[in-house]
Amino acid sequence: MLILGLDPSLSSTGWGIVRCEGARISHVANGQIKTDAGDPMAARLAALAAGVAAVIAEHSPARAAAEARVRRCKGPIRR
């Protein structure tokens, strides 16, 4: 089974593909999807979506996991 791991970031989203066969895990591929900080937010998000879609199309992972966002400020969370 192939698994896609994502380390999301607006400037550079990292990705990796691993193959799991029983208890054995092996590296298949990895890379980054970078965006330009000067581009509008919509263009940056579209570039990230297209990049992730391209990785999925190339490797066809059965599962995916994303690293959780880390909150690095003090104070209450406002929703």
Structure, described:
Strand 1 (2-7) and strand 2 (12-21) form a beta hairpin. Helices cover 24% and strands 39% of the residues. The longest helix has 19 residues, at 41-59. With 79 residues, the chain is of the alpha+beta class. The chain has a four-stranded mixed sheet, with helices on one face. The mean pLDDT is 91. It is flat.
How would you summarize what this structure contains?
With 79 residues, this protein is α+β, with helices and mostly antiparallel strands.
Number of strands: 4
How large a portion of the residues is in β-strands, by DSSP E? Answer: 35-45%
Roughly how much helix do the residues carry, as a percent range? 10-25%
- Please give the radius of gyration in angstroms: 15 Å
The residue-averaged pLDDT reads 91
Shape: flat
Distance between the termini: 37 Å
| Helix count, DSSP H or I runs of 4 or more residues | 1
Strand order of the largest sheet: 3-2-1-4
Helix and strand content put the structural class at: alpha+beta
Largest sheet: 4 strands, mixed
Low-confidence stretches: none
